[in-house]
Amino acid sequence: MHYNELSTTAQDKVRNRYIESLDYEWWDCVYDDAKEDGYEKGFCIDKIYFSGFWSQGDGASWAGQIDVVQWLRTHTKDSIGLTAWIELINNNWADKHIKVGNSSSHYSHSGTMSFDHWEVYYYMDVNHDTSPLGGDSILKDIPVNTVMDLIMSDSTMPYKREDDITEAIAESAREYADTIYKKLQQEYEWLCSDVVMLEHFENNDINFDEEGEVLCFGTIE
Q1: pTM summary value
Q2: Among 3, 90, 181, 189, which one has the highest count of C-beta atoms within 10 angstroms of its own C-beta?
Q3: Is the pLDDT of residue 146 over 50?
Q4: Same domain, residue pair 184 and 87
Q5: Contact 201, 3 (CB under 8 A)
Q6: What does the alpha-carbon distance between residue 132 and residue 89 come to, in Å, rounded to a whole number?
Q7: Distance, CA of 159 to CA of 28 (rounded, Å)
Q8: What is the DSSP string of 43-103?
Q9: 143 CB neighbour count, 10 Å cutoff
Q10: Quick one: 60 and 13 in the same domain?
Q11: When comparing pLDDT for 211 and 37, which is higher?
């Protein structure tokens, strides 16, 4: 018998067994896409964790590091303030990366993500605030304190201080984890849908007896 010919009870039995069979790593494609898309946003993802999709506390988180320059480029409008921050980082006046981890061993959601402190060394070493920037940018040879003044005076730059960037980066990284979770849930629901299930039965020429047991060459598996 085909699935559509079964009783409701037998169909429920078949559907539940089909869903239980999704014990392979069906999430791999979602992981790969999330890592690739995240890299463009400055999120260098090493591992993704998730639990779902029915309990309070379910969600996704990720571990790796954040490329601060790439994050700024993709989350900030082009401006003199953006250029100033990038050149300060490239000249080692601030950390280039922020490490991302998971602060909980029991849950995997965006709220469990942890972030190392992002350091701006200009504020720690004011005796060198007149040191000129190197490199090949338009800010080459300009003193560091003047570069900081450019950031502070740029009305289009929303991130003026160390904490501004730290908080914004953490928020966007958590939002990206929530996005990953939504895509995982969508993928799982699609794989569990009747459309995919029936396509699987048809492609594999699977038939059932009246109780919903799979028939293979005329016998019950």
Answers
A1: 0.84
A2: 181
A3: yes
A4: yes
A5: yes
A6: 13
A7: 35
A8: EEEEEEEEE-SSSTT-EEEEEEEEEHHHHHHHHS-SSHHHHHHHHHHHTTSB-SEEEEEES
A9: 15
A10: no
A11: 37
